[in-house]
Structure formats: structure tokens, C-alpha cells
Amino acid sequence: MKTTAVTIAAFAFAAPALGDEARLKPAGDVPLFHEEATAAGIDSVYDGPWEFFVGGGGAALDCDGSGFPSVFLAGGKNRAKLYVNRSTRGRPLKFEEKPLDIGADPKLLDNVVGAYPIDIDGDGHMDLFVLRVGENLLLKGGPDCTFTLANKEWGFDGDAGWTTSFSAEWEKGQKFPTLAIGHYVDRDAPGSPWGTCQDNSLFRPQPGDKPNYSTRTPLSPGYCALSMLFTDWNRSGTPSLRVSNDRQYYRGGEEQMWRVEPDKPPKLYSRADGWRHVSIFGMGIAEGDIDGSGYPQYALTSMGDTRLQKLDPDEGGRGEYPVYRDIAVETGATAHIPYTGGDKRPSTGWHSEFADFTNVGLLDLFISKGNLAQMPDFADYDPSNLLIGQWNGKFAEAGDLAGVAGKRTGRGALIADFNLDGMLDILQIDRGSNVALFRNLGARNDGGDPLPMGNWIEIRPVQPNPNRNAVGAHVTVKTGTRTQVRAIEIGGGDASGHAGWTHVGLGTAERAEIRVQWPDGEQSYPYRVFANQFVVVDRTKQQAEYWYPGR
Amino acid sequence: MAMAPRTIGAVAALALLIGARAATGASWDERVFSSHVDFDAVAAAGAAAIPDLIARGKTLFKAKFTTEDGAGRPKATQAIVPTKRKFGVNPAFARTSGPDSNSCFGCHNDPIEGGSGDIVSNAFVSEGLESAQFDSTDPSFSSERHTIALMGAGLVELLAREMTADLQGERAEAVKQARASGQATRADLLSKGVRFGFITAQPDGIVDLDSVEGVDADLIVRPFSRKGVFTSLRQFTINALNAHHGMEASERFGVRWTGSHDFDESGVADAVTPGDVTALVAFQATLAPPTVKSDLPDDWRVAAAEGRKSFESLGCTSCHRSELPLKSLIFTDPAPYDMAGTLRDGEVKKNVAIDLSQYAWARALPKNDKGESLVPLFSDLKRHLIVDNEVNALANELQAQRFVERDVFLTPRLWGVGSTAPYGHRGDFRMLDEIIAAHGGDARFSRDAYLALDKSQRDDVIAFLRSLIIEAP
Questions:
Q1: Is B382 exposed, middle or buried (0-12, 13-18, 19+ CB in 10 A)?
Q2: B400 contacts chain A (CB < 8 A)
Q3: pTM value?
Q4: Cβ–Cβ pairs < 8 A, chains A and B
Q5: Do the beta carbons of residue B96 and residue B135 sit within 8 Å?
Q6: Were both Cys, which of A264, A423, A468, B93 would link to A440 (CB 3.0–4.6 Å)?
Q7: Among B334, B327, B394, B310, CA closest to B365
Q8: Considering CB atoms only, which of A27, A455, A549 is closest to B205?
Q9: Segments in A314-444 forming alpha helices (H)
Q10: A127-134 and A161-169 strand pairing
Q11: According to the model, what pLDDT value does residue B27 have?
Q12: Segment A367-386 mean pLDDT
């Protein structure tokens, strides 16, 4: 969060400014998107004063059993809204607003910053963790996209503050998830906002047959956490909590990672552990195994350059030490200034997420961009990035070619297959205007009709409770000699998360073998599946099941 | 890197399209591709372009691809998904792991182009992933396969397409009913009288596939290869071009899917264009189906008639269906059920359509009361287990292929069997009596019944089968 001018000199750019002339041209497909938020029936504006310069997220979730992701959208000073997905497979998107009745004061849906879907009580209905300025909300999901405030029922006091990030995991032996809540500036502290970052919180479930979050464990120091993610960075089976912090307001702070081991107090990784000092305007964490190493890389958005961190093979070993080196420059993923439009001032990056938008079998990187609020030292025209993964390990910018560029004020984003056509769409939440809903039409075709893309598969791993949606699982998809890994996680990005189908592009492969490493570390059967299918991998069954939409 | 020769294909150039030499090429040029077929131009030209297209396909089928055409795959394996060699360089030819030929005709030549082949032309099928290069015929490395005749392949693909539409339609209806009723809905998978088991759709959209039989879980009937794992002539052609010749089609190995125009590093960019593949498909799809030998001597004719009756009474036709009804004789390319890496409908402005009814052999097919053409292929286009504990001579493979277990094979089409000895998926049975006796598993009952016949009755069955021939000059 940045409200005052920051001089460009304050930035230590990792790469020289690259203009249009230096752009790497994508060798293969570029997706073509069509913006159709209004036509789809969505009218939701995230806006408000200083507290709502950051955030601007939402949640995508299947709340009606249709398999289609519906969306809960933060509104800031405006009321949060729920849009139920009424789309038909492969057709233009269609949403219908469903008024929210949470069984409590509807004003609780004001001042919402973002949201993440999570089935906390394991009843098969996705719940919502709603991030607010003020008391946070646990909304218990019910049938037909109904949600009821469950703070009291689940012993949660709301952890009031200015909440800007969230993540969750199921610790070993626990029936219910552990919740990590990231805060921003403590506005009531003396000297606020500078040097007044509020501590973050960890809520571990207390013993019992229903969720009970009556005990808070502080995560101190807090450095104004704009993104958090429980991630199994070293494949140890025990996720750690990565926290990306905004250097604008902390003093002596840095990027953080907490060791969160069952029945032990959380402990920060330190220099002695190999953790290196990185100080950025951290806004959004994305995780992806872009090089097939088995160890995930992390894209961290900031004002200026995006960091892309890779476990250092020399000093990090095989995950013994959390030593990361930045590969953003060598891979072309810095995304530090606008790539089109001529504005050479630094970019402001928010949500980041790895996904395969072309179904070619490589991860791309989407970064939503948008000036904070008329900050003159930063780009005014600041188009979102769509960095297309290339076979040589680099990224090639294609946001403008793809149709996601434009003068917007991006914040959070939801990347999901909203019309279940096998191609990932993007809902970008903009500050001060309606969301942008980009439907993926297929591959650009020199002015002709978009081309069908590569093969794909969408996977939903399920297991018996606890943790029925297998949060913390790693889904491995093998085609030919290539292996792709997706982690099932809750958190990261910019106050935005989605649950449901996990999408994997398969390129030309007609078949794939899926293995799931369940959250407890056990490996699944190998599941043989055909391409272009929705697949439910049930831990209790020896064969994967195919799922088909009803419309 | 040499660039691919110019593309031709304008309607006005049809006379040149096919087989033309580039102006710069000498008349003795060794290359096959002095020009390429322009798919869009051919599609736009419509029926007028088809004869030349087929002729070009025949030329390509018989052509011997050269290094300058892009033949050989120095840095790629035979895998059907683009796969680089881990290290080293492929030799120009390798009899086992390939490239093992520089011409389609090298194997498909018996008794005419497009036909089967002697056992000397067997292929050694492997995934081409791990241990992609091998110089052994040991089944732990590959599955040795006898060449399948392509006669009537267009009709076969059309049958498979219609069967796929039936099965997927039954699935869609079951899903719809289950969601509407809130009850699990069972649906028999039945097409053209062939039963592929059943599915059960749940109200939540999940479909139980445990009882699907003889077809892939995506309910696509794949009629090509011994195992029934290739959807279309187009897919088969692209696979074979790469595996056997090292000729890589751009629609599979090109820049969209590999980031490169020369994935195999042969030195030739986009060696095979979509139009070239279409020419090969058109040639294969219009190969006349096998027939029944018409000039039988009296003793053979009588024996064959008796043999046919026995063939049915023994239960052989429960799998080797005498005929399957076909609704449409319009062969379109690209095919409707191919996936990425094989040209798809959405990737072209217009399909190439070939009306097979223009051919006398198609018009001569008998019709049922629905007006459907009866295709006498002697197959159900379904996979079956072919061995058991006692009868297991055909259990000679060690590798599953593309999810199909090693002892499970597509019912071979017996039309033309009289012209395609030796027999069996590996071609290691010299006589029809031997291959019948090798049937176990799902065919055990019929095989036992056959063996229980006296010698003259068995001879009748052989006489019948030998009357099913591929016409050759």
C-alpha cells in the first residue's frame, strides 16, 4: 500500500527498462480474450478511500453443485456481491446476482477487501473466508449458494484489523484447517502509517467436533502482509507460510517465511536457515513449478519489478535450506514497466498467478496491474501482463495481443474456466470500475476465428474428511516424458482465490497419467485418463471418474 | 536450415498441384516435395479438387522421402507426442526403433499399394519415450506388429465416427436424465448392434465407467491400429510419418506445440503440411474395400458358402460382425473427434469433403431398410481379450499400448483376409487354421467350437475366409 510519492530512485531495478522493441515474440499460441463482464451480467465495483487502495479480491467457487465457478466479489466501500454462474458450456459467460443474506447485519458485507473459498467444516459446501477492514467473516456455505455468518458458531472473534491476506492448510492430525490472517497497517498506532504494521495471526483449530478458532497465535513481527501462502516449498510434507510484505510501511522488514510445524509454535526462517533478505513492495504470491524441477518457483509482484524466485540448486540443496535466487531477468518475467502504451514509469503489480492459458503444457504468468491511485511516479497506463511460457524456459509478453491490456486499475483476479470449455478465463477486479471478465476464445489467428487450443484436463481430487478437498495435495500429470505438477492450495495472489477444478494443459497428448500426493504424503494410484475431460480423483477409488456438466 | 518448398494449391493450379515440380527443380530432382498441398485452397475448390488430391496422396504414399524432404528425425523419437531424444542422434534408419522406411508403400504393398505386407515389413511399436532407441526385437522393448491393409479405411473411419456419436449421445442423455431426476441413471452403450457395456450417471454429473467394455473411457471408437488406439486416418498418418519416416507434420510437431518449425532438427522446416496429410488421408480413405472373390471354382464356391454359415453358427460373427450399417458416405477431413496435434475442424476455414458414393464400390454396398450402407468389414470395431490361461499363443506382447492391456486387441477386420497372410497381430501364423486355433479369451467358445468340427467343416470355414480378398490386377 502506497499513498505517497516514491521516487524512482528508490527502486533497485533488476533489469534495464525494455521497450516494445525488445520484446520476445511468443513462438506459439497466444490466447485471445473477450471482455464481457457487463454482457455477462456482472456489475461490481471495488472502490473506496485509502483502506481500499489495496486488496480488491474475490473468490471463485462452485456453490451450487453445477461444477461452474460462481464468484464472490469484494466491493470495498461498496457491498460485496455474489454472482451465480449461469453459463452454458463453451458459450458466452452469464452470471446472475444472488442477494446475500448471511443471517446477520448486512453491513458486514461492506468494507470487504477480498475472499478465499475453503470448506472449513467439511460438509461439502464451500465456505468463505472474507477479508475486511474491521471484523473478518467466516461464511458457512449451504446449498444453492447460501452463506451464513459462522464467526460465533466457530468461535472466531473476527481478528479485527485491516486484513489484506489469508492462507489456510490442514495441519497433520487436525480435523479442521489452520487459518493464517495477514494484516496491513495498524491505523490506530502512534505514527501510523509508517512503521506500524500490525502483527499477523495464526488460528489453529481447537479440539472438538466442530471448528473452533478461539485461540489466536500472533505471527510477530508483521510487516504489512499483502499476500500469504502455505506452501510446501521443499516437498517435506509440511507446508511453510510464505508472507509477501509491503516495504512501504514496514521498518526493518523483509519477505518472510514461517516454519509452521504441528503442535509447535510458528517460527520464522532466519539467516541461519539460509533465508535471504528481500525487501519489495510485495503484493501477490504465485506458485508454480515452471521448470519441472519438482520444487516450486514463486512470482512475487511489487511496484517495479516482479521477482521470480527459484530454489538455489547450489545453496538450497534439495530443499534443506530456503535459499532462493531470482530468475526473473533471465526468464523475461520482470514485468517492471508497461510493455505497451509508451509509459515508461514503473508498473504496479498486484495479483499474480501461474496458469496455462494456451493448453500447450507450459505455465504462463498473469499479473494484474494498476496504478495505486494517481501516483505520478508510477505508470498511469499500466496494462496487466500475460507472460506466455516458452519452450526455452523464458516468458514472452502477450497481454496486448491477448486483449487483457488496457487502461485499467487491476487488483485481484480470479483465474478459472468459467464456461467449462477447457480454456482458462480471467476475472480481473479493478479499483473504481466494474470488473473485467475476459473469456478465453482460443488461440489468436491473424484476424481469423480463434483456433482451438491444446488438449487439457481438469482435475478435482477428493478424499474423506478431514480436508475433503485435499488442500495441500500435489497433483502430478504425466504426458510423454513431461511431468507437470499443480499444488492444491488456499492463499496467495491479491486477496483472491479459487477452488474447484485444477486445470492442466496437455498440448498434443491425448492421454495422461495422474498421480496425487495426498496431503498426508501418501501417493495415489496412477490414474489413466483421456484428454479434454473433467476428472474426479477420489482417494477411495482405484479409477478416476469422469464428470460432465449438465448444461 | 532449408525451408520447405513453396506451397501450391490454388484452384487454377490443380493440374500442377499434385506432383508438380517447382520451377527451380531439375527434372531428375530426388525430392518428393517440390511443392506442398494447400489445404485451404483444396477445401475451397470442393469436389473438383478431390481427384487430383487423391492422386497426390497416392504419389506421396508411394514416394520415397529424402533427406531434403525432411526425412529422418535426428533429434526426435518416434513418440506420438513431440519428444526429443535425451542424447545423441538417431541414425538415418533403424530397422526396429525407426525410422525404418522411407515410404508408406514400403510396408503397405501386398497385394497392392495400401495393402498389407509380408512379415519382413513388420513394425516394432514402442511409446518412444524411455528407451526410445533399441536394436532388439525383444518384446520388452517393443510390440512387433504386422501391417494392416488400408482397403476400405474411409468406410471404417466413418463407421467409427457414427459409433462414437451414438455412445457419446447415450452418455449425454444419461447425464441429463440423472441430473433432472436426481436419480442414478444407467445407460447401455449400444451402437450399430454392438454393445460396449454400460455406464451409470450420477445426479452430480459423475459417470461410473467401470462397466464400459471394449472402448476407451472417453467413448471415442478408435478403429485403427491392432489395439484400436487411433481415431482417424489423419492421426494414424501423422504418427506413421514421424515414427517410420521421420517426416514430421507441422500440425503435430510444429511451432504451436513445440515452439519450433523443425522439432526433429532434420534441417527442413514444417516438412509436412496439413494439405500434404490431407492428400494422404484422401488416398487412403478412398481405397476400395476388399471384396469377395468372384471367380471361384465350383468346389471353392460351395465350400465357402458352407463355411460362411459355419462362421456364423460358431459365433465368430459375435465379434467379427459380418456388416455394420453406415448412415453417411460423406468423408470429411479433418475428422470430428481428433484432438490437438491432429488437425481439427476449428483449425480450418472449411472441411475437405469426399462423397464416397461417387465410387462404384460404395454404391454397390447393400442397403438396409433405413437406407444405410452395409459395410462388410467382419469386425465390431471393439476391443476384446484374445487369450486365456490355456490358449495364449497371441499373448506375445509385454507392453500395454496407450492404456490398452497387452492381451486385448481390436477385432481385426477380416475383409481381405484372403489376401493378407500371414495372420495375427504379429503376423506369425502362416495359416488361417492356426490363427483361429490361437483365439482364446473372449473368442474361446467359438474357437473351441471350430476345433470340434471335422476337418472338412473346418476347411469350409477356411474356404470362406480365403474368398475375402483385396482385388489386385
A1: buried
A2: no
A3: 0.95
A4: 106
A5: yes
A6: A423
A7: B327
A8: A549
A9: 328-331, 399-402
A10: antiparallel
A11: 85
A12: 94
